[in-house]
Design goal:
Belongs to the binding-protein-dependent transport system permease family. The chain is mainly α. It has helices at about 1-20, 55-90, 90-105, 110-120, 125-135, 140-150, 155-160, 165-205, 215-220, 230-265. It contains 10 helices and no strands.
Amino acid sequence: MFKVAIYLLIFIFIVIFILPFFYTVSAFDLNPKEILAAPSFSHLFGTDRLGRDVLARVLIGGQTSLIIGILSATIASFIGLLIGITAGYFKGKVDKSIVILIDLFLTFPTFFLLLALVSYIQASTIILIIVISITGWMSMARLIRSESFAISNKPFIKIQKLANVSNTKIIFKYFAPLLAPIFLISFTFLVGGSILSESALSFLGLGINPPDMSWGTLLSDGKAVIDIAWWVSFFPGLFIFLVTFCLIQISDYLQKIANTKEVIN
């Protein structure tokens, strides 16, 4: 299943980022003569209530959703990595302060925290990346902190500290390789979660604003005509499902490998 997920994810990325160079139908042109046209050879995914080509809109909207998901997950992951290593390595008061900070953020449900932040800011791609990053680093930080705490108690790390080896060298030479598996596992989960967060915000009208689009805004556009034109919402929803499903399968596989290595060690 892991190989299928990898190949499918690669295929989706190729379709979303490469196909628009060859499929030159505009995602913005209105066509009053083809309003809510069903999928056909002329419009493979049909058209929406303004006669716009759904396939073209899914491709352009997918670029926005994937860019937001990947960049926000990357930023959140490195924030969580930095905070988690700091807490687990230095311990003591530093660790207690960071734990309080993490618990404070986790006190508020993540999605409602997203809603609260976005409702006061005019959303754009950059704003959504920043907001999702700010609200998505806690899980990574907790996992990295726990693992860093265990690593810092290992004898070879204590010997390095007694030998006055610099903290930077210890972290990059010893912590980084040991934390890489858990970092990758959490990162894949974060990408999927970030895409879903952006889609949910856009679906509620708090995300990407027209004329820009994402899979979430396409879902929102189709909800008013779902009874008579299922394709308007179905195809963006299908792509969201496929991407998140693939990422979950990849995460599960990486987690199995990591657990197997731990058992062997």
